[in-house]
Design goal:
By secondary structure, the protein is mainly α. The protein folds into three domains: 8-69; 75-178, no CATH class; 183-231, no CATH class. 64% of the residues lie in helices and 0% in strands. Helix 1 (8-27) packs antiparallel against helix 3 and helix 8 (184-196) packs across helix 9. The protein is extended. It starts with 7 loop residues before the first helix and ends in a 7-residue tail after the last helix.
Length: 237
């Protein structure tokens, strides 16, 4: 899961699948084939001891995953945004996500979602279902998976072309994809800051460092290129 732009709901889904897999293996007394061949040749007493070790291994793994699960918060409620099936988008999922966003972003009125105006959910659902088979065929032809981000871009592109407003759905999707699944983005910021705020430049004010970091992280341009890009844009300055 340590990849660029991994979201919290993707990690939550992977975590859930792993926990389910381990639970099923424990219930079925699963032993890897290589170990099973050795296990069969052991005497009964040793086999019982080995089985206890396997059971303990599964129990410890599941217990660890239970502890890790606490860090996801409500991320799993946004797993439908991953669009792993044609019927992923529905009123219940969207309404639950909207309630989470409204309760967690009380101090940001612009992000408030009006549940009574979530009609764009129906339009999104219709678009996904009508294009799902086409996407599957495209994936087969291209030998590549169409990412959930690409699917949403196509959906919102379709809405834009047909002058369909979807402000609520856009807010939900933006919020979901902004939930980081790993600490990699934060770690990259610290690494970049060490390159910017060196011993030779240690007298810079925090506000200056903040500005430099914002430019580097959000634009991908060198300082000089960024300066040349905006120096004539008075409205930006």
């Amino acid at each position: 899961m340590e990849k660029d732009n991994t979201t919290a709901f993707e990690v939550a889904e992977a975590h859930k699948a792993l926990k389910r897999n381990l639970t099923e293996r424990k219930a079925s007394n699963f032993i890897p084939m290589g170990a099973k061949n050795i296990y069969r040749n052991l005497d009964e007493q040793v086999r019982n001891s080995v089985k206890e070790e396997f059971d303990g291994f599964y129990e410890r793994c599941i217990a660890y995953l239970d502890l890790w699960e606490n860090s996801f918060g409500n991320a799993e409620q946004f797993s439908w945004v991953n669009l792993t099936k044609a019927i992923a988008v529905d009123w219940e999922n969207a309404e639950t996500s909207a309630e989470i966003i409204n309760s967690s972003l009380l101090d940001i009125p612009a992000m408030k979602i009006n549940n009574d105006q979530l009609f764009d959910v129906v339009l999104a659902e219709e678009y996904l279902q009508s294009n799902w088979e086409h996407w599957k065929q495209e994936e087969t032809t291209r030998y590549a998976i169409i990412s959930s981000k690409e699917k949403w871009l196509r959906l919102f592109g379709h809405f834009k072309e047909n002058h369909i407003a979807a402000p609520n759905m856009i807010k939900i999707v933006e919020y979901a994809f902004c939930l980081p699944g790993t600490s990699a983005p934060v770690e990259s910021v610290f690494s970049l800051m060490n390159n910017v705020w060196t011993d030779d430049r240690g007298l810079m004010k925090e506000s200056t460092v903040k500005g430099l970091m914002a430019c580097k992280i959000n634009t991908g341009l060198a300082c000089e290129d960024f300066y040349n890009k905006i120096k004539k844009k008075k409205d930006f300055l």
